[in-house]
Every structure is written in structure tokens, then in C-alpha cells.
Amino acid sequence: MPEWPEMDTYRRLLSPLVCGRTIQAVEVNREKTINEPVDVFQSALTGRKILFVERRGKHLLFHLDDGHRLLLHLMLGGWIYYGPESEPEREDSRYQVILELDDGNRLFFGGLRLGYLHRLTAKGAQEHLKDLGPDPFDPRLTEEAFTKRLGKRRGKLKPTLVDQKLVSGIGNCYSDEICFDAKVLPMAQIPDLSEETKQRLYHSMRQVLEEAAANGGYMDHKFSADDTFVGGFDEMCRVYDREGEDCPRCGTPIRLEHVSSRKMFFCPSCQKEQ
DNA sequence: AGTGACACCCGAACGC
DNA sequence: TGCGTTCGGGTGTCAC
Q1: From the Cβ of A261, is strand B under 7 Å away?
Q2: Which of A42, A163, A171 minimizes the C-alpha distance to A100?
Q3: Residues of the domain holding A13
Q4: N or C: which end of chain A has fewer CB within 10 A?
Q5: Is A114's CB less than 7 Å from nucleic acid strand C?
Q6: For chain A, what is the domain count?
Q7: Where is the FPG-type domain (predicted)?
Q8: Does residue A136 lie in a domain region?
């Protein structure tokens, strides 16, 4: 669920808090979340300094002072919490991994059912991310580069937008929001799209992701005790999870359809096939 | 190359 | 209310 805006929000919030901090202790409550034996993971991380935090697509990379990286993917329903103590209503055991920092705060990784936190070499991390497409805001991904890239694809628009090889970071929610903003149906066939529509998709992609990130994305977990920012975009979604509600543009009820077990929310009136 | 099916996992939602 | 069952959703992989 966490997509580009959610992960970039985490990166922005975490960077000033954890850069330069040393990991003092590591708690692992679910061994499958990590990629090596718990004792190896713990002793390798203890004493390591976090240099900086990088986002690649929906991944977060914590760069460590020994050249290794901690690679995080929240997948479905994962979240991050930061503070001296966990969220009051949540037991520590609900968190799969907890990193204790040298300033008395802790980084809590929760909801990692399919998500993971892997300790990798620089090479290992690179290998893991080798198939990721460009970032939506990569300066090399110009309007022309994007429309060309999209134009090479066949098939339906939505499955292509969520394909991390096309552009990295777009998932179920924002693909629907982008299609709505660009006034095109998510089930439209890419070869049918006009050049203008592909150009609109490019600008909608950047506009929607930027607006969502500026409002804290749609995460439903607080980042810290006094956090009122994360999740602010939840009520700003135009179509996602709004089946039956009025389209904010034309008033037609939003429709939900499934394509290969994937939800698509759209306005059947003001979003078009081309 | 696109499409669909499946496995992974477990909290949440649902049904009785 | 409470217990058992089903479902969802990103990604990787595999078959067609």
C-alpha cells in the first residue's frame, strides 16, 4: 500500500532524525522479516552509524557506515514509527524489528507481513533494485521520454502504471488517482491513447504524487507521538476507495471494477477510453 | 510481451 | 458476542 508519496514522506521525516545516529541495539520479533540469522543481524548492526536515507521506488535504503545498506519494503500495510516509546495502543511485540538509536529514540517497523528489512552489501542492494524503472521525478524522465516509454507498451493502462519497470513508486491507489486526473479510464488500451492523453498522464503523475507527498500521503499510522502530518492525503483521494460516491468533477457515482483481482476506481462519465 | 494464476502472510472484514 | 472463514494486496515467478 505505501507508494511513492508515503515512502518519500518517510524519507523526508526520517532523514534529519536518524542521519548520524548510531544503532545501539536491535530487536527482532519476526525472523522472516530479515535475511540472516537474528544474532548475525544484531551484531552486524550494533554500533553502525546511519549515514543517510535514500528512497528508490517504494523501497527505503538506510546507508550504513560499513558500506552495507538496510533495504526496507513495507509491501502491504507496513508502517514506521519513531520515538522513545512505541505507540501507546500497540504492544512492542507487534513490531517485527526495532532499532534503538544512540539518542534514546527507537525506529519501529510494524505491519511487515510480506514486507522485509534486509541487510545487504552495496552490490546486493543494487542487484535487488536492478529492474526498477526511473523515478517519476527523475529529470531524465521528461514528458517526451515518458510518453515514448509508455507508448512502447501494449495492454491496459492501469496494470502498466503499477508496473515498477515503467516508473517506480506507483501502486494501486495512485494509479487510479493519476488516471482520474488525466481523464482517462484505467482499463483503456495503451495503443488507443492519443499523444495528448499520454502527455496528460505524465503531468498528472507528477502533480498527483507531489500533492499527495505534500500532504503526508494516505498512511493511517502516525509517524510519531506528535505527528499530525502523515496520512493527510487520505481524505483528498478523488476516486480511490470511493465507490458510489459522487465524482468530484461531474457528480457521477464512482464505479469499482476488478481487473485480474486488482481494484480500479474510476468515474465512468468524465474518464475516457482514449 | 501480455495475461492470468498462484504463493507469500496475517489483520480485518465477513458470515453464521 | 464469538468463533471460524474469506479476502486483500505488492511482488516474484511460472505457465500459456
Answers
A1: yes
A2: A42
A3: 4-128
A4: C
A5: yes
A6: 2
A7: 238-272
A8: no
